């Protein structure tokens, strides 16, 4: 039987939605500068920084030091949304699939972010993937602070 899970979270940021979306959509290479305590490196494996199908290799800290490849599965400029699918790495030892989606909407001059993490466990003994949701949620306040300084 499939061991499916899904987490959703929302967070309001002070930065405009367009600028927050742009970091996730086109400028992932900035994450080691924005959140050096969480993201050690992001490298482009194939494609470019802003196209569907592009593959990126991340070295990050989500509890333990990990690395993994992800691809940009989909994005839309209206509404501002992007979905990443993990391809390999430490997370894929535990999960058959792992996807993270973000939607960024304007709330006046601010941004409301909605994050959805969907996964399928390899077996019933595998923990829920909440540490990956916490990781992505933990990046957002730093992105906000970075943009507010710019």
TrEMBL record:
Record Gene3D superfamilies: 3.30.530.20
Name of a matching Pfam family: Bet_v_1
GO BP annotations listed: defense response
Domain Bet v I/Major latex protein: 2-150
Superkingdom of this protein's organism: Eukaryota
Record-linked SUPFAM superfamilies: Bet v1-like (SSF55961)
Family note: Belongs to the MLP family.
UniProt-recorded name of the protein: Kirola-like
Organism: Rhodamnia argentea
Gene assigned in the entry: LOC115739934
């Amino acid at each position: 039987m499939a061991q499916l899970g899904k987490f959703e979270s929302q967070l309001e940021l002070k930065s405009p939605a367009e600028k927050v979306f742009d970091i996730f959509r086109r400028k992932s290479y900035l994450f080691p500068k924005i959140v050096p305590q969480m993201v050690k490196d992001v490298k482009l494996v194939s494609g470019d920084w802003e196209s569907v199908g592009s593959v990126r290799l991340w070295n990050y800290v989500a509890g333990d030091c990990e690395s993994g490849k992800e691809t940009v599965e989909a994005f839309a400029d209206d509404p501002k949304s992007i979905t990443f699918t993990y391809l390999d790495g430490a997370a894929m030892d535990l999960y058959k699939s792992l996807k993270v989606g973000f939607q960024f909407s304007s709330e006046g001059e601010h941004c409301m972010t909605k994050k959805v993490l969907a996964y399928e466990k390899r077996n019933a003994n595998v923990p829920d993937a909440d540490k990956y949701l916490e990781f992505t949620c933990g990046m957002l306040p730093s992105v906000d602070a970075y943009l507010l300084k710019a």
